[in-house]
Every structure is written in C-alpha cells, then in structure tokens.
C-alpha cells in the first residue's frame, strides 16, 4: 500500500464540524479509489458503490428521499441502522447524474453523513448531461500522481524520507537525493508504476504499465468527444502533448498538424478538464494579484514525467544523467517542477503561473510565479552554480514588495546577494526540493507585503 498525502487532507475533512459531501477529482489511475479505501480504515463501517453498476444506480433512480436511499444502502450492505462511524463512497459518480444531484440533499437533510464521491471524467460527463454540482453544497479535493516525497516513501527508507523533509537539506544527503530525484523523473509518479518499480526495480516492467495506461487514456477519448472530428483532434493532441511538455505552445498547427486554433484549443482544454494536461498562462504583472493573460501562449504541463519519457521514447537519455537541465531540450526540469508545484495543493485546481515582460519585443521570462504572505516569489529553474538571471533582475527591480527570489539548480542550498541596480536575496535551492519552496521562504523570514501588515 502506497502512503499518499491526500490521506491527511481526508482526515482533516473527517474531523471538520462543517464538512460537506466531498468530491475527489483527478485523472484516471492517479490513486483516488485506493486512497479512499485506505482512508476508510479509520471508520468502523465502509460501503463502496461503483456507480457504473446498474444495481448501485438503482438506489438513485427510484425517486427515494435522501433518508430512504441511505436506509436502502445500509440494509443491502448490512450496515447497522445506528452506525455512527460509517463512510459511504460513490465511485465513478459521473455515471449517475441523479447521484450527483443527491449530494445536495445529503448535505441539507443528512449533514452528519460522511460521503465521498470520485470520478475520472467527471466534468466532461456532467457537461454532456447538462448537470452541475450543487454550488456551496459540496467540497472538492484534487489528486495528482505521486510527488517526490511520496516516491521516496515507496522506494527508499523512512530515514531518507525524513532527511528529505529537512530544510535546508543536510549536506551528507544531497547527492543521494539528487540521484533519487533523477530516478523519480524516469519512473514517474503514477501509483501502479511506482508500486511495480518498488518491487522489481525494473524499468521495462514499468513500461508495460505505462503502455496499458496510455492505451486506456486513448480509448477513453470517445467517451468525451462530441463527434468523430473531435475524436481525431483529441487523439492527435493527446499523442503529441508529451513532446511539448515544459514548453510554450501555439494552438494553431499544434503538434505539426493542420488543425486551427479554435479546434485545437477546444481539444487541449478538454484534456485539461480530464486532468491529463494543464495549461499554464503567463502574467505580466509585477505585483499581486497575478492575473493570467489568456491572450498569450500558455506553457503545457503534462500529467507525469514517467509517462512522458515512455511516450517520447527518450528514457535512455535519462539513465545515469547528472543534471536534469540537460534533458528534453531543457524542458524536463520545468515540467517536473510544475508537477511538484501542482501536487502541493490538493484543495484547489490552480496551475502555477509564469511571468513575461509586457513589451512584445522582449524575451524576458521567469519560470514560475508564487506568493507567500502576500509577497511575490519568483522562481527560476537554472543549471549550474551561476547563470544568466537578466529576467529575474528585471522583475525584482520593478517589484517593490519582492525581497527574495528562488533559483532551483543542480547544487546545494546557497544564499546570495543578487541584482544589478537594486539588490535582493537569492536562495539557490536543490531542484529536488521544489515542493519545499514555502518552507525555505519561511526559513529565510520572508516579510509580509505592506498592505498585509
């Protein structure tokens, strides 16, 4: 069993006196069902209903009241009527629109009920049925592939996982953590692949898992394509998206195709809805809030680096590599960093942004823009102990609230004074610690913005 961070989030939900029915969202095979089953161990009773099965849909098709539905489920599954520690799990809930609608009434009529729902193609299916989630009556959490810390827990020792959690990293463990991170980039974070690798240490066996997984993703397309033309475009976009990971894209002619901007854009946004990709849009703002500029080219974020390496056929390039900045035309490290930043937040679907200069003739760009305590926190992904940081200097000179910038690189933790016309603090952080950026910023006592004091 793989320990997932989402379990802590689910336990917080369980303890909350203001809980609502919880909907767990994520792409196929990221571990939603297994995570809920593990979470169910904290209950005395557990009922799992797969809503693709007719006998389970029947509960919601019979026009019963919420109370009657719960009584019928308990009766069929042998749950005591007065059970005070019971979790109801509605898996693949998109297959039963009536069950989606019933979540509202569970909240209003049975507020003490603990109910979790999950589905992989949820948003697409509900759009097709013209059904929306009851606003304000449900909560959402999001699952992604396993992050690096979870990967360490599955493939290395508890001591190494504890070492990874230290900020800054102890010097004696830096090289071993880099080696583990490079292995994580190769294997990826899809739970079945990680579990297989943890047992066999065989990347060929992992490839068989990824072949089956990607085939399933392709086979899913007819489930959410509205016609045959869109099926072809979606299939093309899905098969070529991994080759564009970590890079800015244009919708017109995406993947060396003859498709136009409108049809490609619709296809890519559909893949984003099913959480196979994320489209990261730039901001041109120097201060918060960072409003994404949807008129500018987005950067494509693929679901997982292990699957990416398998599809693109460049696994051999990563075996024995010493610096991820040298792989995949420099885009892998941006892809992997984005994957870590996405997985750090399971309470919202909020892809990180990056920064570009407003002027059209400018090439200035910063890889990621975060915030802490109301203060902008620019993040650059660079290789080597030094590098060209013109974009970072430009941004820091024009942002009065920013005092700290982050550079993720192939090296140990190092603090420098940087800047040309105005000085700022530059924290050089090992790139395997991308998920720990907030901890580093807190360690360095980042001040609050003036209007937040």
UniProtKB/TrEMBL annotation:
Domain AAA: 19-151
SUPFAM superfamilies registered for this protein in UniProt: P-loop containing nucleoside triphosphate hydrolases (SSF52540)
Positions of the DUF4143 domain: 219-384
Protein name per its UniProtKB record: AAA+ ATPase domain-containing protein
Organism: Pontiella sulfatireligans
